[in-house]
Amino acid sequence: MSILASIEKNLEKISDFLNLSNREMKLLLSYKAVHHAKLDVNGNKYDAWRIIHNNALGPGKGGIRFHSKVSEEEVKALAFWMSLKNSLMELPYGGAKGGVRIDPKKLSEEELQQLSRAYIRAFYKYLGQDKDIPAPDVYTNPKIMAYMLDEFEKLKGKHEPAMITGKPLILGGSPLRGDATSRGGKIILEEFLKHVKPKKKTIEVVIQGFGNAGMNIAKMLFPNYKIIAVSDSKGGILLQDGLNIADVIDVKQSTGAVVNYEGATKISNKELLELETDVLILAAIENQITLANADRIKAKYILELANGPVTADADSVLHERGIDVIPDILANAGGVVASYCEWAQNRAGNILPEEYILNTFESKMRSAFMKTFALYSKQKDFDMRSSAYAIAIKRIIAAEKARGHL
Predict the structure, then answer these.
(1) Residue 30 in 3-state DSSP?
(2) What pLDDT score was predicted for residue 394?
(3) What angle do CA 44, 46, 51 make, to 5 degrees?
């Protein structure tokens, strides 16, 4: 199932509950702007996109990813999810996303800077603190955000730090942004566990994807949770007695792969997904649990730290089997909540105390969870994704109606 087909099916699940008209469904499945360009780096051309799904609630907001498999369909899906994520978190944003089809590992530092600046030159007319605000995503980071900010400000002839988030601290970035996705995921997971009250004292966890988000949430959960398996793109490792996450991180950082960790059983990503565990954290890429493997998943609860790792068809199977999926637009919203704090601070020209920012962050995450779980508890035929979608879409439709568009 394609990611856009999965999105459409998820919308259909809640259309009756929200009484969505054909016109409203058409609006939700359309895009405000789809921009495409060819970026030139040393004579090599790379496809690039900046897409806004919806901006009824505010300017576009969403990251830019550099990846060899980036496509227009993927960027559209990510922009759609950003619309829902921002709406669910009650942030003053619409949804947007950007991407460049490239393997950044093959570029030198100088070429990465050229690519980052070329991206801004291609799309700067559509960007800005009140238009569309990018941020880091897969294989982009604060350094790349700094290059992009610098290029934007040169082209505009003025300082505008709020046009991009995830910047280095020296350029107005937030200390919260680096591990915000993982921090938010941990808050959501712990709120969820408080409500479902598992009988076990020690919760077993499996993590697929040991990149930035997966590694950070592993650090935050260890040693209070028993992390029995982790994986990256090269494979995984399993130790039923629990992995020492500090040692796994050392191995990953020194050798580039968790499979080089001594004293654990080497397993494939396929085997990792089907392990018996309390919590399965999906922190890799889209479409990891599909109709093909949903009936073999043994985790009790799934936390989507990645975007779109469970397809709509698989959602139905998991729900029927009593497996709760904590959806991506809730579980991984920490990044954009931290970005909001950075953007607001830049807009105001004010430096807010870190404690205030952290309190705002935690309050936003917990509030969104409570709303989602409350609806999920009432609507027995809903899974948690349907509940989160319904809350988010209701706000978007209300904003479109207030503007006279519906």
Answers:
(1) coil
(2) 97
(3) 160
Q: State percent of the chain over pLDDT 70.
A: 100
Q: Which residue has the tokens 């601070």?
A: 345
Position 272, amino acid? L
On whether the CB atoms of residues 278 and 301 are closer than 8 A, the answer is yes
Tokens representing 20 are: 């969505």
Q: Are 343 and 149 within 8 A, CB to CB?
A: no
How does pLDDT run across 65-99, given as a tens digit for each residue? 999 999 999 999 999 999 999 999 999 999 999 99
Tally the C-alpha atoms within 13 A of residue 10's C-alpha that lie toward its C-beta.
31
Mind listing the pLDDT tens digit for each residue in 127-145? 999 999 999 998 999 999 9
Residue with tokens 């500090």: 246
Helix, coil or strand: residue 213? helix
Q: What is the pLDDT of residue 100?
A: 98
Do the Cβ atoms of 132 and 61 come closer than 8 Å? yes
**Could you give the residue ranges of the DSSP H alpha helices within 2-141?**
3-18, 22-28, 72-88, 109-123
Residue 21, pLDDT > 90, answer yes
Radius of gyration of the chain (CA): 20
Tens of pLDDT, residues 231-250? 998 999 999 999 999 999 99
Contact 270, 293 (CB under 8 A): yes
pLDDT at 146 over 80: yes
Alpha-carbon distance 365 to 184, whole Å?
Answer: 7
List active site positions: 97
pLDDT band at 34; cut points 50, 70, 90: very high
Please give the structure tokens belonging to residue 252: 């990953």
Q: What is the CATH code of the structural domain delimited by 32-172? A: 3.40.50.10860
Name the packing angle between helices 334-348 and 72-88 (round to 10°).
70
Kindly list the domain boundaries of the chain, sorted by start residue. Answer: 32-172
Within 68-207, where are the H helices?
Answer: 72-88, 109-123, 142-156, 180-196
**Average of per-residue pLDDT values in the chain:** 95
- End-to-end CA distance of the chain, in Å? 30
Structure tokens, 304: 């989507």
- Please spell the DSSP secondary structure of 266-282, one letter per residue: EE-HHHHHT---SEEEE
Does residue 32 sit in helix, strand or coil? coil
